[in-house]
Amino acid sequence: MAPWTPQPAGLQEILQTIHESTTTSATVQRNITEKLNHFTRAPEYVAYLAYILSAMTQEEDRIRTIAGYLLKNNARLILSAPVDVAEFVKSAVLTAFNDTSIMIRNAASQDIVAFLGVLEPRNWPECLQHLVLALDSPDFDLQEAAFNALEKACEDYPRKMDVDINGTRPLDFMIPKFLTLSEHPSAKMRSHAVACLSYFVPINCQSLFVHIDAFIACLFKRASDDEPSVRRHVCQALVLLLAARPEKLMPEMSNVAQYMLYSTKDKNENVALEACEFWLTFAEDQELAPYLHPLLDQVAPTLLDCMVYGEDDLLWLDGDAEEDNAAVPDKETDIKPRHYGGKSHGFERDANGAETSEPSKPRIGAYGQELLDSDEEDYDEFDDDDFADEMTTEWNLRKCAAAALDVLAVRFSGDLLKVLLGPLKEKLWSNDWLQRESGILALGAMAEGCIEAIEPHLPTLVPYLINTLNDSKPLVRSITCWTLGRYASWCTQPRSEEHKNQYFIPTMEGLLRMVLDNNKRVQEAGCSAFATLEEDAGDELAPYLEPVLRNLVVAFEKYQHKNMLILYDAVGTLADAVGRSLQNSLYVDILMPPLTGRWAKLKDDDDDLIPLLECLASVTIAMGPAFLPYAGPVFERCNNIIHSSLLQYQQYQQNPELDEPDKSFLVVALDLLSGLIQGLGMALEPLIANSQPNLLSLLTVCLKHPQAPVRQSAYALVGDLAMSCFALLRPAMPGIMQELILQLDPEPKFEFVSASNNAAWSVGEVALRYGRDDLEFQQWVNPLISRLIPILLHPKAPRSLHENAAVSIGRIGLMHPTLVAPHLPEFSQAWCQALYEIRDNEEKDSAFRGLCTLVQTNPAGIAKSLLWFCNSIIRWNQPSGELNQMFQTLLTGFKQHDEAGWAAQVATFPPIIQERLAARYGV
């Protein structure tokens, strides 16, 4: 086969475009991007780029380098390229890798890493060979370049490197080679060697573990290397070993621990940070707690010292740290993109079932960074990303130390406080503001784990913190806000009038003052901490609503762009917390003008509309009928946003070259309509009836939307419409039900769970509203039940889906007992297991009345699950009068039907069930 060669015309066109791409005009840039995207359709495009990079030495290095970067970005195209094109690209990139120009070599090196990843080493073994041979080259630059490429490949896709190629494993000879090179006279080479070796630890690579002792010996040898980057990789490797193979480190733990303590204090921040990660990893592994416990008295004070701001941090924070900057507009780059997930319907469980409340909204996360989407980042997981997002710096030593202290507090609680009490007091009462600030951070970091041990000290600490809100340093005020937020639940406990006057009211007043601080960073921390206080205080805030609202309204005038988004969240949380107390016309008159003012300024496609709509959804539910004067424009705008979003999506489906539209507008508009309907119910009838296009036809389209969060919010809206204004929903039910039945999937993909959840919940709400034996609903009973039962019985379906399916089966059974009762033996045990831990509420009550109706209709159906049925009955704390009577009638009936059989069966029940059945129902 003849080797590939370029066509002059094609080459000229691509070269010309690359030359033009160095221009700065935005219009030209746009045309170029379109042109370059157009080129990607040509099967030979990557070969032209490789040719320019490797062979066109008459061109400037800059032009050839751009070709190299375009090649890297389009590496995937090699998979669909003709054979001659692919072969040419592979050899051209290796040629460029040997170029005399360092720019060209660097570009080629990045191309190699990209192509090795796409093709995988098994399909390009000669490249691996080329790189490994270059490690022995007399030319040091080439040696280093090859090792640099290998390190990136080992880091990016270690599993692809760990393969068998024609009966040999490249790593079997590469790993001993890396071990030898860890002794290389050049620090760069030693650093690459240790790094490459460490990346194979997490994947349990056998080629490395054969040499594990030599590897650990190599780490100890390099531990005192003069070069910080080598020491950093040693620390990193020890962290990875601790996570993957702790048993290999435990015999050496006293040496490793001393080395890591020493390295945590290293002058080089990168080394200290990697060493600090060791303590975070150590603390996270519960099984290693016995090994960590004896080290607490050394580790905890070391971490405490790492939490003081370093000089670099303060340089980064310059603007935030010193001045009154409230009037300085934000840079758009400071504002992180938000991901908006819709609302999901779940249940609260009793103390023995894990969940008891809705997950709290994201705020300023641990140690002062903002967490914008709590759905994706569970703070307890201590994922580095959780802390990586402080307004200014990346993940750093201070945050890592605080995160490690946080996990240590959860792990060792009072024992940790014993060790730190002395050093903490010293810091908190130090004259150096940096020491004070770090002590306050530590106090906040320990709040969750050490709360019981710290509680006796809170009557001293909380007034100290409230007083520190007057500190002249903005960084001290802002961390104090965060720490007060961490203790908000203690401050807000309704223990006594005295507790309220000494702690709750001063904390609330102090944080409100910080909401209006003249420093943006303090405003942000104050507003976030105040939102946490609102959540914990709930209705306790109701008597103070007027001053709270007046302060928040001043913030609407004062805040710049970024803090405004946090202010919306604080207002929405306040509405959730105080609920119907917000209906007072005085409060409506204070709060609504600034919100409608913001609302009027924002266009339908402005991203800031999203958090505002989210905030309004909470406000409308809380204000209820008092919101009616504002409902018309809000309803109409939501309807328009839904309509235009659906049209945009339709255009995108017809032309996939367009960017996929942002679903967030659609989701928040649906959620705000849910809020309006919960707050105003049938008062919305004229708006729904006259909507153009009709809301219910738009809703039916949303139920089929390919994006799960849209379906999720659409099903929530169906359920809310059923509850508050069923008469308006009913005409659209045949179309809705068709989609709804399809959405009930026993094993939904992870991202579809919430949509299935809301669909399962809304079915039950709809069934109740149709009423007993309704003919229209009857046609759907069998299709629904035949999907809900498999969900309930599916071992892998999430718990929330089991619960929603069970409630809906119960409610459908309540309304159509004769159709559902024959299925009772099939699902009764799973049904009782799904619901016995849920807190008493109206939904659970109607579901259980349904189950009892089914048992009355088909008593034999419960025979095999009698133990589970009785267990779920005695788990009720306060069933409604009607439900309690149903329990009594059924249990008495069972006993009277066959006294001896009943007595024999009850005798096999656990004692607690026997006692409660006898005490409550006399059976």
Automatic annotation (TrEMBL):
Annotated localization: Cytoplasm; Nucleus
Region ranges (Disordered): 326-365
GO BP: protein import into nucleus
One Pfam family linked to the record: TPR_IMB1
Positions of the Importin subunit beta-1/Transportin-1-like TPR repeats domain: 508-723
Cellular component, GO annotation: cytoplasm; nuclear lumen
Keyword Protein transport carried by entry: yes
Gene3D superfamilies: Leucine-rich Repeat Variant
Annotated keywords: Cytoplasm, Nucleus, Protein transport, Repeat, Transport
InterPro entries with a match to the protein in the record: ARM-like (IPR011989), ARM-type_fold (IPR016024), Cohesin_HEAT (IPR026003), IMB1_TNPO1-like_TPR (IPR058584), Importin_beta (IPR040122)
Domain of life: Eukaryota
Similarity comment: Belongs to the importin beta family. Importin beta-2 subfamily.
Protein name: Armadillo-type protein
